[in-house]
Amino acid sequence: MSAVVVRDLERTYASGTRAVRGISFSVERGEVFGLLGTNGAGKTSTVDVVTGLVRPSGGSVSVLGHDPVRERRQVRPRTGVVLQSGNLPGDLTVAESLQMWSGTLTRRRPIAEVVEVVALHHKLDAPVKSLSGGERRRLDLGVALLGRPEVLVLDEPTTGLDAQSRRSVWELVRDLVAGGTAVMLTTHHLEEAEELSDRLAIMHRGLVAAEGTVADVVAGHRSEIRWKADAGRPDVADLSPGDTVQHHGRYVVVRTNHLQRSLSRVLAWADDHTLALSELKATPASLETAFLELAGTHVTEEAA
User: Fold this and answer.
1) What's the pLDDT band for 302 if we cut at 50, 70, 90?
2) Can you give the pTM of this predicted structure?
3) Tens digit of each residue's pLDDT (9 = 90 or more) over 235-252
4) The dihedral formed by the CA atoms of 221, 227, 229 and 231, expressed in degrees to the nearest 10
């Protein structure tokens, strides 16, 4: 049985806004399932329903075989949740926070073990309000791990962390998955999703636009060749069959299914016209290019 099963889920707010419009996916034990999307895509609304914070407006959610709202007592002790902000009392120390939370659990992991895992042994006597952003995030993770979760929901777990702290969290997640934990991850970091996710779904306007492994999602999306637009642009006839060429801001962008062949033709065109292609860049199809296409956005100058 899948650890999490979402079927035809809908979430409509009192204002009438349909944040989630009938999505389905599952999360298996021992895997990371990534949930991606632009702001307003419906990710947080989905997390709220999966974690039992709100009821669905339609469809169903099952966590470890139970309804997370109606059967909360069966679900909550077996799940861990790290929301975007932990909101632990700032005046408590790290040790006091862990002890307080541990006292609410029936399947406690030893506090010393959790402290070692999240590397906060040197901060046990420090008030929560004195912690750095990365330290607070590790404390949030520690609290979630105290109950030995079979399902762990991570909502933007590395937001605000530096590169080293982010990678420490990644290693922690990998260790949990190796032990059989099912992890549902939302993130704005495409590198993080690509690094951790066994499978993922990209949401857009309340719907799942694509789902599968990273390779599945990337398949069918095109590579890109770009350069500064002041050099001009070739005719489509100069490129490979099926290629497109457009202006995007200060750049000319060629999209292609045949990167090597099309790049050769672009270079030949530039050589024939004695053109210097400033800031020339060839990018194979990736999760980023798939995400941008599926989300209906375009590559910006800043992303160049």
Assistant:
1) very low
2) 0.82
3) 999 999 999 999 989 999
4) -130
Cα gap 108→195, rounded to integer Å: 30
Q: Beta-carbon neighbour count of residue 206 at 10 Å?
A: 22
d(CA 262, CA 285): 14
Find all residues with CB under 8 Å of 183, minimum gap 6, and list them: 27, 31, 32, 33, 151, 152, 153, 154, 173, 176, 177, 196
Rounded to whole angstroms, the Cα distance separating 297 from 304 reads 14
| Residue 255, token pair as written in the block | 């999209």
When computed from its CA atoms, the radius of gyration of the chain, rounded to whole angstroms, is 23
Beta pairing, strands 223-228 & 251-256: antiparallel
Q: Take residue 145 and report the two structure tokens written for it.
A: 């791990």
Q: Which of 31, 24, 102 is nearest to 60 (CA)?
A: 24
CA distance 223 to 26: 30
Pick from 24, 29, 69: nearest CA to 48:
69
Best CA proximity match to 159, nearest among 130, 188, 138 = 188
Predicted confidence (pLDDT) per residue in 147-196, tens digit? 999 999 999 888 878 888 888 889 889 999 999 999 999 998 899 999 99
Residue 197: both structure tokens together: 């996710």
Residue with tokens 């999240």: 118
Q: Which of 118, 9, 117 is nearest to 69 (CA)?
A: 9
Contact status, residue 167 vs residue 173, Cβ threshold 8 Å: no
112 CB-contact burial (10 Å; exposed 0-12 / middle 13-18 / buried 19+): exposed
Separation CA 253–CA 277 (nearest Å): 12
